[in-house]
Automatic annotation (TrEMBL):
Catalytic reactions of this protein: ATP-independent breakage of single-stranded DNA, followed by passage and rejoining
Organism lineage: Eukaryota, Metazoa, Chordata, Craniata, Vertebrata
Biological processes, Gene Ontology terms: chromosome segregation; DNA replication; DNA topological change
Residue ranges of the TM segments: none
Family: Belongs to the type IB topoisomerase family.
Function description: Releases the supercoiling and torsional tension of DNA introduced during the DNA replication and transcription by transiently cleaving and rejoining one strand of the DNA duplex. Introduces a single-strand break via transesterification at the specific target site 5'-[CT]CCTTp site in duplex DNA. The scissile phosphodiester is attacked by the catalytic tyrosine of the enzyme, resulting in the formation of a DNA-(3'-phosphotyrosyl)-enzyme intermediate and the expulsion of a 5'-OH DNA strand. The free DNA strand then undergoes passage around the unbroken strand thus removing DNA supercoils.
Annotated region described as Disordered, given as residue ranges: 397-416
One term of GO molecular function: DNA binding
Domain DNA topoisomerase I eukaryotic-type: 98-469
EC id: 5.6.2.1
Protein name: DNA topoisomerase I
Domain of life: Eukaryota
Record InterPro entries: DNA_brk_join_enz, DNA_topo_DNA_db_N_dom1, DNA_topo_DNA_db_N_dom2, TopoI, TopoI_C_dom, TopoI_cat_a-hlx-sub_euk, TopoI_cat_a/b-sub_euk, TopoI_cat_euk
Organism: Periophthalmus magnuspinnatus
Active site: Y455 (o-(3'-phospho-dna)-tyrosine intermediate)
Length: 497
DNA sequence: AGCGTAACTTAGGAAGAAATAC
DNA sequence: GTATTTCTTCCTAAGTTACGCT
């Protein structure tokens, strides 16, 4: 709690203190004037003690707690949609707390207020059992809108945005949407060559806006960048996507490390995750970028004649349902399929390799685990131990061979065979551990989950599993199998994305 | 045509649970 | 059995896009 990095940030502290003072009585306000003089040590200790106590609960106590939680899920975690009982994704209202925006968010630390029934809109069908508000309270509104999928909503006080209660990913509704998403991406596959040809032509257009659109599309396609909507300054962290790139985010190199026309990207994207990449691009795109940057300041928009609306409008004219993000889905899925074809080694590690290629493409990063260095060192130590064992086993084998020749042992060959097997076993284990070490090292900063869950057509993975007899459980855990139930049902081993 | 907002998907970190090491 | 590591779930912030309004 107190030891979190947030508490050391000035913006967080200032925002918190300002909002806290608003909550104080006038008497408190006259006493508590300086956050630096406040000591939350006692509260922190209490919180820590609670966490500690949880750890040392008996099995029975833990079970009691679990049962109580399950009861809550059973009662509130489901709804009836089109006569089907469906799991709700987030059925609990968000509790009050201090806002934890990502990156340099100007609002971090602000007080996120408690939501009252009076703030909540209920959306259900007229003839359903309308949920009863807590005693003495009423809902903000009860409506019956069957054109939307949310069950309840409220407006959050930090950004003024609407929050929704919606169905779980394993629901029929979400599954159908997911399927549709991948079908649109597959449709793009059939016309992507034409679209690429088109934007290549557009790079030479006389219209500035067309040229900018073409370069942006080239980036979105080649690098899987996000669309990049405009953001209100001062309301959120300063992050960008393709269309909102500024001059300061790219550096042009006529030549770099033996490549020509290299663009160096360095910007903060969604969730303030850094995108850093040096990419050789086609000459036409490069020349255009030079042109776009002429007479501009570092803080100016690179694509000043382009918005995501214009881009998406153009895309939808090329293919029904086509938007910028479809390229991310398409490129992610097609990359997985290609990689799986190339990595013929039908092992889970090669699947992870393919998955990783996609995660790198989409720039899905994670903070290296806190214990990463330590656990890597531990693994290395195990490898070293095994190496010693291998050396020992080898010398024993040598000895055994020698003895088999010199002495008339009753069964000299058996001993040699045994020692040989021991060497083999050692070598296998060593190889396995070294592979694991490589895998882990390569995964240090890469998050595989996001692409698996949101970008990779599950039918590719299901087909791959069937084709090579890999159990699906090796690829997808329980909740992932639930989410992708639609794909598991329908996919044969010859599925082509 | 441009803009604001509602609705929905995508995202990484924290917390909790399970597996594995010691 | 206990400690540590790894996997899974939960949480909610932060994006994208469609749509209605002017």
């Amino acid at each position: 709690m107190l030891d979190h990095e947030y508490t050391t940030k000035d913006v967080f502290r200032e925002n918190f203190f300002k909002d806290w003072r608003k909550e104080m009585t006038s008497e408190e306000r006259s006493i508590i004037k300086d956050l630096n003089k406040c000591d939350f040590g006692e509260m922190n200790a209490m919180h820590k003690a609670k966490v500690e106590a949880r750890k040392y609960m008996t099995k029975e106590e833990k079970q009691t707690l679990k049962d109580a939680n399950q009861k809550i899920v059973d009662e509130f975690g489901y709804c009836l949609l089109d006569h089907h009982k469906e799991r709700i994704g987030n059925f609990k209202i968000e509790p009050p707390g201090l806002f934890r925006g990502r990156g340099e968010h100007p609002k971090r630390g602000m007080l996120k207020k408690r939501i009252q029934p009076e703030d909540v809109i209920i959306n259900c069908s007229k003839e359903s059992n309308i949920p009863v508000p807590p005693a003495g309270h009423h809902w903000k509104e009860v409506r019956h809108d069957n054109t939307v999928t949310w069950l309840a909503s409220w407006t959050e006080n930090i950004q003024g945005s609407i929050k929704y209660i919606m169905l779980n990913a394993n629901s029929k509704l979400k599954g159908e949407k997911d399927w549709e998403k991948y079908e649109v991406a597959r449709k793009l596959k059939t016309c992507v060559d034409d679209i690429r040809y088109q934007y290549n032509q557009d790079l030479k257009s006389k219209q500035m806006s067309t040229r900018q659109r073409a370069v942006a599309l080239y980036f979105i396609d080649k690098l899987a960048l996000r669309a990049g909507n405009e953001k209100e300054e001062g309301e959120t962290a300063d992050t960008v996507g393709c269309c909102s790139l500024r001059v300061e985010h790219i550096t042009l190199h006529d030549k770099l490390d033996g490549d020509e026309y290299v663009v160096e990207f360095d910007f903060l994207g969604k969730d303030s995750i850094r995108y850093y990449n040096k990419v050789p691009v086609i000459k036409k795109a490069f020349k255009n970028l030079k042109l776009f940057m002429e007479n501009k300041e570092p803080g100016d928009d690179l694509f000043d004649h382009l918005t995501t609306q214009k881009l998406n409008k153009h895309l939808s004219s090329l293919m029904a349902g086509l938007t910028a993000k479809v390229f991310r889905t398409y490129n992610a899925s097609i990359t997985l399929q290609q990689q799986l074809k190339e990595l013929t080694n039908k092992m889970i590690l090669s699947y992870n390799r393919a998955n990783r290629a996609v995660a790198i493409l989409c720039n899905h990063q994670r903070a290296p685990p806190k214990t990463f260095e330590q656990s890597m060192a531990n693994l290395q130590a195990k490898i070293d131990t095994r190496k010693e064992q291998l050396a020992l086993a080898k010398s024993e084998l040598k000895q055994a061979k020698k003895e088999a020749k010199s002495k008339d042992n009753s069964d000299p060959k058996a001993l040699v065979e045994r020692k040989k097997a021991a060497v083999k076993r050692c070598e296998d284990q060593l190889l396995k551990m070294e592979l694991q070490a490589t895998d882990r090292e390569e995964n240090k900063q890469i998050a595989l989950g996001t692409s698996k869950l949101n970008y990779l057509d599950p039918r590719i993975s299901v087909a791959w599993c069937k084709k090579f007899g890999v159990p699906l459980e090796k690829i997808y855990n329980k909740s992932q199998r639930d989410k992708f139930a639609w794909a598991i049902d329908m996919t044969e081993e010859d599925f082509e994305f």
